[in-house]
Amino acid sequence: MASQLKEEVLLRLEVMASTVMWLTVAAALLALALGVGGVLKLLLCVVLSACGCLLVAFVISDAQTSPWDELRQCRQRWRKIRTPAEKPERPRPTPGSSLTGEPPIDAELSEILSFVLRDFVHVWQCKLTHTNDFSHAVQETVQTSIAALSDRVRMVDWIPFLTTRLASLFILYMSLFY
């Protein structure tokens, strides 16, 4: 019985010694590949990552609400700040509707958009599918973006912007870089 126990202990010591030897070889190869500074940086990253994970787990377990609820509340507050309540919602433009309110500009923008769709979208889309759903979605998205940009441009008071703000920024730029 004692000899059997002794053999088992020796076997475990042999396995442990083999494991320690392989870990030492791996550490030596890592030190040769990364250098001592690289190994220390790697260890620091591992330790700090583990501490960060533990801190996040502690904060989440200590919180009474989930982080996703807090994120949703933050997004709702941000939407309230970004979109004032008195601003009327502009209807989405249709392919024939006015984008900017100026017919000559709308005609040119529509022509440019049709050229872009023809040259850059239809070329590969016709090989994938025979429907034009994607082209229509791209066209609608671009038209909505142009309409929103046009609305934002109309909201700017251009005279004070050009005479005071832009002029002061230009003078500041010239004084800093020339």
Describe this protein's structure.
With about 180 residues, the protein is an all-alpha fold. The chain folds into two domains: about 90 residues; about 80 residues, no CATH class. Helix content is about 80%, strand content about 0%. It contains five helices and no strands. Helix 3 packs antiparallel against helix 4. The model has no long low-confidence stretch (mean pLDDT about 80).
Low-confidence segments, given as residue ranges, are none
What is the overall pLDDT average?
Answer: 79
| Helical content class | over 70%
How many domains make up the coordinates?
2
> Which structural class matches the secondary elements?
mainly alpha
Task: From the alpha carbons, calculate the radius of gyration and give it in angstroms.
Answer: 33 Å
The main β sheet shows up as: none
What is the quaternary state of this protein? Answer: single chain
Shape annotation:
elongated
Q: In sequence order, what are the helices and strands, one letter per element?
A: HHHHH
Total of helices: 5
Number of strands: 0
Percentage of residues in strands: under 5%
Distance between the termini: 91 Å
